[in-house]
Design goal:
With 843 residues, this protein is α/β, with parallel strands linked by helices. 37% of the residues lie in helices and 21% in strands. Residues 208-373 form the Helicase C-terminal domain.
Length: 843
Amino acid sequence: MDPKKLPIYELRDELSEALKNGNRMIIEAPTGSGKSTQVPQMVLDCGNAGPGEVVVLQPRRLAARLLAKRVASERGEPLGGEVGYQVRMESAVSAKTQIRYVTEGILLRQFLSDPELRGVSTIVFDEFHERHIYGDITLARALHLQGTRPDLKLIVMSATLDAGPLREYLAPCTELKSEGRMFPVEISYARKRIDFRHHRVWDAAADAFEQAIESGAEGDVLVFMPGAFEIARTVEAIRSKKCARGFAVMPLHGELPPAQQDAAVGECAQRKCIVSTNVAETSITIDGVRIVIDSGLARMARFDPNRGIDTLLIERISRASADQRSGRAGRTAPGTCHRLWTEQEHVARPMQELPEILRHDLSEVVLTLKAGGIDDISTFQWLEHPDPKSLARTLTLLSDLGALDSAGKLTGIGKKMVSFPMHPRYARMLLAGGEYGCVRQACLIAALTQGRSILERNKGGRTRGQRDELLGEDDVSDFKRLMRAWSFADQNGYRVEACRKLGIHAGAARTVKPLYERFMKMAKRAGLEINSRAPTDEDLQKCILLAFSDQVAKRRDKGTLHCAVVHGRSGDLDRESVVRDAELLVAAEITEIEGRDLNVKLNLCTAIEEVWLEELFPEDVEEITEAVYDPRTKRVFSKHWKSFRGLELKSNMSPEVDPDQAAEMIAEEVMAGRLDLYKWDDQVEKWIARVNCLAAGCPDYGIPEIDEEARRAMIQEICLGAVCKKDLKARPVWKTVKSWLNPAQLEIIEKQAPERIKLPSGFNAKVRYEEGQPPVLSATIQKLYGLNEVPTIGFGQIPVMVEALAPNQRPQQKTQDMQSFWNNAYPLIKKELKGRYPKHEWR
């Protein structure tokens, strides 16, 4: 198709005018309208953006490269000339480059070296509805820069966007909208819910493919799967179908070599079936697709701030993402979309995914912001404020890595870490490699942990035996075996057969080498000395420890794989780890494994020594002596323990305890009802109720209330000297309780809150005191004869509630108006009871 016939071209004149008259705009255009390839060209060609580069931010590396290649081809230029791309550790740009496609983090780092972004005329934020972290942050920095550079143009583009909040954020801005030209897409759903545990998602997709092709559907097929593993299985399942013989079935995801990616999106002599991650959901247009098969799944990265764990779980996509995917079938002609879920399930899906800022690790972003002079992260001009717990956890991690000081300021180490375009912990590892003479090993470890593991799991005893024989046994670090496995694969040319014998994934191992080489170049550029000799085990262990000190763990006991982890977390050591016998270790990965249950696993572990923690992190090692209560023996002990960031390293118990601390802990157990203070009986509670009744009813007389705090103070005083349950049996109570009042107040209590009141009948009636209730006097009706006024206590200020009882002592009436009782209630009570109790007096 002629690019100038794409729907987005209807906005060319409006865009040119908006660039001439303003510096902020929002462009909304549907998928396939051509905005990702054509808007940057229109900006450059109209001349109203001023001199300088047009930088296009893309959420994904694969999309940035493919779009740059497409635009360069359209302009008849070689890639890296007028049009280029730059992603993490890979670029094709030159002094001639005028349109530069970049991943979002690239431009944010450019702010560090050039805060004014000299040479950049326009920043285009593509696919902004995906709300990636770096897109949000870069937009905020760019808006701030416009304060000193009003000539800088900002264009925010999206296929589907709730423009309201963004409009307010960018105000004043111009909004442009292209309706596009979409062909109708017929959407079908599964007739009943598919349980992917029993009918695998790749088999369900292959069945849907077979049904679509045999029904006569035309055009190429695009299948959406959550990740590379599911894509590989889907490709196999579809190729096994007879109806797929005329198709080129190809995978598409970010881990593939560029040639395979190009083949998937390029022209083909036969019909194609592309099995892709959500990279094909937006940005990349694949011509000829008329059939979409959607698993409805995606791998979503989320950060758990409560445990500090990164998760990468398969989740259901939102309805907005499903609409994006189905739209791919109506790009060039009417199409169909087969969704592998029911229509009822579709209604229950969320409308939109959460922005990454609310579900992702923030450490690299925060470190970059700190380096850019943003000291107070909480006051940064966020488009969407991150979760406070996640932000707090990020700051803790950066402090643990030594990047921030106690005041949250960037340290010298932190400034060095920023120069490495990688996660802060791996930046710290490379710096530690320079300190301990193991830069090569640090670079290789960093490369090995960026993708899938090169060692396959659960390969059986024979494979494990061959692996041990050829790779050697080691009890220091899982990384040593991983590095030896990669060296074996590299030396054998990544031949599948050679690697399979040792359970090495040849494809995964092949992807490590370019990463390793890039990290090595990065280390050289940073001035790190590249070691030629192998480091000692201790040097390598310390290097790893410095990068993962926030994930130090201690085995709870040798009979279990369960470990306690710093900052109050826990997890299970991987059964295949070589450091199963280590008491203290550091885990490079703490992951949630999705299955029947959700388990937290400690992977890629390295044994460490306690003395290294004191050597490397002296400020984080504490020695504490405190009283602790043992619920098993019901006794308080003195515990002396050493901890590292809240993780107990070792401890010992002593029966010698501080009496005040012991009293406080014993008192807490009594207050909680787990221990009994034997002489604190019902009489004590009744006396306290009398005191509180007078304190509430006669506030002018200064009687102090005995509340929960006062009870706690009394009980602590009574428990002073007690260290266990047995000591409570002989503790005197009354002396301490009554000492709450002075002698004059005690005398008032006895007189003004009496235990009994004498009635006209001569009967001494007992008064019942209860918290929050008026005092109650109970007596049989016969003993109440002659009582025409309600008695009072507390200097006549507190009326007593009179409870009239039948001869059998059962309550008949409560009153605080005796005249009304005798005139109205008593005749009815007398009529009912006189026949049942004829021997009693009835006046």
